[in-house]
Amino acid sequence: MLEVSPDDIRYSYDGPEIVFGMPELIPEDVKALAVKQYTQVSHRPPFSYQITREADHYQEIDEERLFALEEELFEGIEELEDERLITNAACRRAKTKLLQARSALKDTMREIKSRPEKTPGLLSTVIAETHHTSEKALGLRTKKEELREYEIAKDRYFRTLKTYLSCLERSPKVSSSKKKDAQVHRDKAEAIHIGHATYSVLKKCIHEGMASGLLRDSGAITMHHLYQVCLHYLNDLFDELDECAHIDAELELLQEAEQEVARHMLHDADEDLDTPLDQILDKVNQRVKVTDEDLVRLLENDELEAFDESFHSIDKNAPYIKECVLRVSKPKNKADRPGYIRRQLKEIKDLLFKIRDRLNNLHSLKYMQERVDKDETAMQVQARKIRETETELYALIDETIAKTGLLTGLERHYKLLMRMKVDLQRECLRQKVRLSGIKKTT
């Protein structure tokens, strides 16, 4: 398994003091909860924190199939192998490097798991800094350093895995069916690696610019929202992959996923973070792209068919991903916000994303806190969000459903829109019932 159990590292925190913009406007209990949740998120390995299983746990953000896919990418590669590969030196060397990378990743996981919990509960900044200093004085590595090693080992594993699968795919000794299987696994590895790398880069950006990025206006943790919207997309993708009748259709979905995972993880970056989007994409590309000299030499081996860098998807698709992110971003000028969804959305995928984003926003409405710097009360904001969904977004969904139902090649989008509209209607009703109950008791 690629992930470290969150129970092993839940509360350790070696970072700087957590601060908030306009702290006088945020209640103390909200700040305490935010610090506790951020501590958990920032020190659980990226793209894998466990969502709290409460009564309102939503199926679209269940992590079970994501963990199953990671297990497949970590343990299930042997099934792709073929006896004829023994005579291919490039594939043999790539397999050796893959086993070494997997061993190194397991070692870093073992170190984190074996580290005893130093201080249970929520650490204050003073305790965290003292703990960090004492470890340094003793020459010990801090939890933060161990997790950084874990991230480096995980990136190395994914890059080596993609190299090995590329070697299989381009070996003249491998059957065509095995080549297709290798390509499917490589595209899965690329999509998930992009998710891990983007999560990690965003987490660091939030950590460095804590004043503006930690909390959303709803009171939810920014990283929770980004991850859950992306997870919703992945679960929709898993459903579609299950329905694929042919491997070529599966490959088409997976190649699209490489862009969509980045788009869903980055969708609020321009709105919530201080770091420029180009800079974030460049950092993700540095983590994902295979630039290791030993791996590049393998990819360019004469025993293999010509090397195609097509799986360097962030490098190739950064301008398109940036365009997609900006297209679904809320205008910074409040006067431009009314009707912006209809004006800015250009593709069906934009609308599908917006529904996932809005559905997650509706889920978190109940966490919204009163803000004295706002013109509306928290209840008024929640009621407005529901009203906007039922008017503007419903109408746009209905128009798009009417169009896609008549167009060939868009059947999968039509089915997805129909199902997601029902999910949205159900959540709007649930939130209206909750709000009406609050009004009766106040």
Write a short abstract of this structure.
The chain contains 17 helices and no strands. It has 442 residues and is mainly alpha-helical.
Account of the 3D structure:
There is one protein chain. The protein is mostly helical. The chain contains 17 helices and no strands. It has helices at residues 28-42, 64-75, 89-114, 125-137, 143-170, 176-208, 210-213, 222-243, 247-265, 269-272, 277-288, 293-299, 313-327, 340-344, 348-363, 378-404, 411-441. The longest helix has 33 residues, at 176-208. The model is unreliable at 1-26 and 117-140 (pLDDT under 50).
Beta-strand level of the residues, as a percent range? under 5%
Would you report the number of β strands?
0
End-to-end CA span:
49 Å
The geometry reads as: globular
- Share of helix among residues? 55-70%
Order of helices and strands: HHHHHHHHHHHHHHHHH
Please, how many domains? 2
Rg, nearest Å: 23 Å
Largest sheet: none
Could you report the average pLDDT, rounded to the nearest whole number? 75
Summary keywords:
442 residues
